Amino acid sequence: MTEIPVKIPAEPKSAPKAPPKHAPVPSARKDTLLYLDGVSRSFDGFKAINELSFVLMKGEMRAIIGPNGAGKTTMMDIITGKTRPDKGDVFFMGDVDLTKHDEPTIAQMGIGRKFQKPTVFETQTVADNLLLSLKGERRGIPALFYRSNKPDRQRIDEILEVIRLERRRNELAAFLSHGQKQWLEIGMLLAQDPKLLLVDEPVAGMTDAETEETARLLRDIAVDHSVVVVEHDMGFVRDLGVKVTCLHEGHVLSEGSLDHVSADPQVIEVYLGR
Amino acid sequence: MILGRFLAGGLKSPVILISMLVILGIGVLVPVLNLAVPPSSPFHVADHLVPLYGKYLCYGMAALALDLVWGYCGILSLGHGAFFALGGYAMGMHLMREIGTRGVYGDPILPDFMVFLNWKELPWFWYGFDSFLFACLMVMLVPGLLAFIFGWFAFRSRVTGVYLSIITQAMTYALLLAFFRNDMGFGGNNGLTDFKDVLGYDLQSGQVRSALFFLTAFFLALNLLIAAAITGSKYGKILRAVRDAEARTRFLGYRPENIKLFAWVVSAVMAGIAGALYVPQVGIINPGEFAPANSIEMVVWTAVGGRGTLVGPIGGAVLVNAAKSWFTGVLPEYWLFALGGLFILTTLFLPEGVAGLIRKAFGRRAKAPKGKDEETDQPVADATAGE
Which regions span the lipid bilayer (chain B) (predicted)? Predict the structure, then answer.
């Protein structure tokens, strides 16, 4: 029940002015939302992340591709505070050092995460899943006295409409189909209203129709949020139509448009060479 | 006012309201049948049954407390008997001080066992217990504080599941060993007993017995209301979210350790109150109350009654203990087998306990039209889903 120690400017578009007591923010990361430099992390000698550098600008949407074990999930773990890097810099909004905070603090700063396997609260209704995710108070005791209010209900209705689950609002999340759970989780991300959304394999196990729908949903979200999507499905990445970063063995192999990346001989080597 | 609104939230469910009325009704009925109905009448409740029923209600309160953490927060505590016993000891210490010069040794300050041990002075932790209000405060504060310290460290180090259960069991076992020691200053092996009166009224009198019974029913109903208000609030939703997917709640910005800590402490305080009401009715508190088996029995009551239903565990505690009273009279050597068998059967065939069974029997009829709605809903919502 601690207060968030770091205050973040509310407007994501404007560059944050570093407070005078801090050292001036290096110009390289001044306008970045997410800035990873020389990040390494090994597990029992296996380098899951190796000298990884990655920059995401404000308002940008990026797709990350890469074979299994390329370090995609570990990278998300590091950004969200689940895992600490062995070395390297991880900055959010240019000057917030993410390696110094834990998961709840980072989540409250405005980094939302959707997991590879959909994790919604199955024993609660779709609407309650969103209510629990709504931006705002995160302490327990005030929640005892929480009263349902109009702005919250309206926000939940809006999100239900976006994720197309209006008609299932009072059903338990457990009864949703796999694809609908994925959407509900994206809806929970929206409810948090984060500055950055990390979305891990949103279309794994989805039908083609669901995949298309999800691409539409993410493009809509990207209009006013920064998004990082990890995905294997190339058709889906093409649908997103954004800059692509290809990871391999814990570092960036290639970066650019999907056509550029997929024409890169190194990428072809990694994906087709074995 | 804000508190009243909070408690009113607990009444949203008619089941809770009805259960509270039933409990309060029993709280009035049993004393009336004992005191006002002549012993010749078949409706008369015998004197010795009043504290026995009171004991069942105390157990019901302990099961309710356990359900708050086990049913709603996923913490399987195998040490709730410790909080129950600590509340009991706090009340027992006051009752000891009230004996005064009427003890065997007639010492105005020192309880008998201290005189027997040749102690000259009252230990510092017995100060204040001559005041009833102080003792009542300690009934809640001591279990609450232990739970706070225990939970603070256990939840912060992210100990969960079976490991947490084992630590809770170790906690109550450690207290058992400690309270057995004479030099702890709690009467050692024999514990605290020979109570004479409470607030100046004779504990053996019918009126006091009845008053204690009513108080137990009152506090049970009140605790049920508090538990229902807690679990029915948004906090209750967070609590269940932590139970089902603790890691997920962290990425939503919640601190599961703090969320759990609150319910844990409230539960310990409830168990302490149950213990405090238990002691004057059974007339003794000894270290045996810390025995791990006691805590495990609470788990059985809760499971039989229906984990996660609040009302169910209260019924479970009463049912199982009534069965125990009957069984230990008829076939004493087989009681533990019966208890073990009951637990296994419940786990295998009644995962939601008796309450789940009742809910199913009633729910099927009530839910039937709803099911149709869902069916008409499905094609629309699933049009793009397909799975």
Answer: 15-37, 69-91, 131-155, 162-180, 211-230, 261-279, 334-358
